[in-house]
Request: fold
Amino acid sequence: MLARVLILGGTSEGFTIARALSTTGQFDVVTSMAGRTPAPKQPAGKVRRGGFGGVAGLSSYLTRNNIAAVVDATHPFAHQISQNATQAGQACDVPVVHIHREGWQQRDGDKWIEVGSSAEAATTIPANARGVFLTTGKTTLKDFAERRDVHFLARIVAPILKCDDVGLLPRHISFIHKRGPFDVARERGLLIDRRVSLVVSKNSGGSGAQAKLDAARELGLSVIMIQRPPPPTGLIVANATEALDWLHRTLNLPELMISDKRLAVTD
Ligand code: NAP
Reply:
């Protein structure tokens, strides 16, 4: 019987692992998505959607589905599901690894203002600022609703029907609906065309969303950078390659036939 691996998805690393495991023929791969994005990109292998129902629900899922190992490839800011995975793995004696990619580091020329949360980012924006580029995700937008003196440009993946869903009026916020990865030339063009004066970002790390920071540096723009929550407890690796090595060792399988090319994280 094939070893069944649950990938907690939502990042490019999750797609990379699903693709790499599926091509070996040695795994039955299931990727779990939170289900908040309409028409999300499809990973290789099987997909399930929606929450499990906390630690108890995830534990029950692991047991019922005979999961041999869990790869937590969720976003570094998705702290709750990562902690749930650690606890459910312990409760069911199922091995769990967390991929926790490195955060971005300030470089020469960067003008970062580091804050602890999106709420703190909202209070840090200067009065009456125009062209404040929010790249912090749809669920954080409500944290900026008190700042009706500011004009925001928010980039999100999923469309929002009404802007007052986030507590703001059309004169306070405009939306761009776009999924990464992004490149520096286009990001530079966007910052110039939309007269962006300040960028607000989570410190997500990775390559897919980094271009806006490079463009902001080139244009001398400040970035309000939201720091990460603490890393999850349990076993942590830095990338998809290390997670696949761990799976190989943990499940005692013959050598994985995965080329470096297939493992390249492209988005
Ligand atoms: P979170 O706060 O850690 O999780 C909240 C709840 O959402 C979890 O307790 C769980 O519900 C459910 N959940 C989260 N990820 C799930 C998954 N992959 N499969 C099934 N259920 C999941 O998570 P979040 O920050 O809202 O992120 C949700 C998803 O968006 C994650 O897959 C994450 O990788 C992705 N994402 C997040 C961010 C971000 O900035 N937070 C950015 C990009 C992508 P139950 O307790 O009911 O199981």
About this structure: The first strand starts at residue 3 and ends at 8.
